[in-house]
């Protein structure tokens, strides 16, 4: 039984330290399944997930992520790509520049929340050299790597709670 969705959202926080413990295959599958149930414009589902468990490859991805060394502790790194051509075919420029990114970001967030739901830690990593990722993973030309998501069992205490803007700072009620 996983947690209630609101509690899961509240509990999720980036985890950058992991135990050297494998993530069970069936749990990983459930996390990927949750990611691919995300909404997408026209139900195009332009995302593709590349699951990396090989330690040497994770070290390579860490290098490509400008040496974010903590990443090497993660037993799994999922490289999430989007295919803007699919969205462009239906929605033109708006599909290519906006929907493909929005759809795939929704899948990424689902992935983070699902990981939290299974008491795993995760972190969305966006700082990396896109071209090098394509080369190392030999990705098809049309795919754009959007994020790495590290997944594993958290090591140690949670990081300090991040400062959050006040809700009324970011909310305008239009009557
Ligand atoms: C688009 C994006 C890119 C990010 N890139 C990185 C990154 O390269 N390295 C990292 O450690 N965290 C990265 N993060 C995680 C953020 O730092 C983190 O979500 C933010 O500080 C809020 O903290 P929380 O996730 O604990 O709520 C990224 C998050 C997003 C959404």
Number of strands: 4
Can you identify the CATH class? Alpha Beta
CATH A-level architecture: 3-Layer(aba) Sandwich
The main β sheet shows up as:
4 strands, antiparallel
How would the global form be characterised? globular
Helix content: 25-40%
Could you tell me the strand content as a percent range?
Answer: 15-25%
Measured distance between first and last alpha carbons: 41 Å
Rounded mean pLDDT score = 96
Small ligands present: flavin mononucleotide
Keywords summarizing the entry:
175 residues, alpha+beta, NADH Oxidase, 4-stranded antiparallel sheet, 5 helices, 39% helix, 15% strand, binds flavin mononucleotide
Protein topology:
Layout: H1 5-11, H2 25-35, E1 47-52, H3 55-64, E2 76-82, H4 84-117, E3 121-125, H5 130-136, E4 144-152
Antiparallel strand pairs: 1-2, 2-4, 3-4
Helix pairs in contact: 1-4, 2-4, 3-5
Flavin mononucleotide binds next to strand 3.
């Amino acid at each position: 039984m996983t947690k209630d969705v609101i509690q899961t959202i509240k509990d999720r926080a980036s985890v950058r330290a992991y135990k050297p413990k494998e993530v069970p295959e069936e749990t990983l599958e459930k996390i990927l399944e949750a990611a691919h149930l995300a909404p997408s414009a026209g139900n195009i589902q332009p995302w593709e997930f590349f699951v990396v468990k090989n330690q040497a490859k994770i070290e390579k991805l860490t290098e490509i992520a400008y040496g974010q060394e903590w990443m090497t502790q993660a037993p799994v790194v999922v490289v999430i790509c989007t295919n803007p051509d699919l969205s462009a075919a239906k929605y033109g420029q708006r599909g290519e520049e906006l929907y493909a990114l929005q759809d795939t970001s929704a899948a990424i967030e689902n992935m983070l929340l699902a990981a939290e739901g299974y008491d795993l830690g995760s972190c969305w990593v966006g700082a990396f050299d896109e071209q090098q990722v394509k080369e190392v993973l030999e990705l098809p030309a049309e795919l754009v790597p959007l994020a790495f998501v590290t997944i594993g069992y958290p090591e140690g205490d949670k990081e300090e709670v991040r400062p959050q803007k006040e809700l009324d700072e970011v909310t305008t009620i239009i009557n």
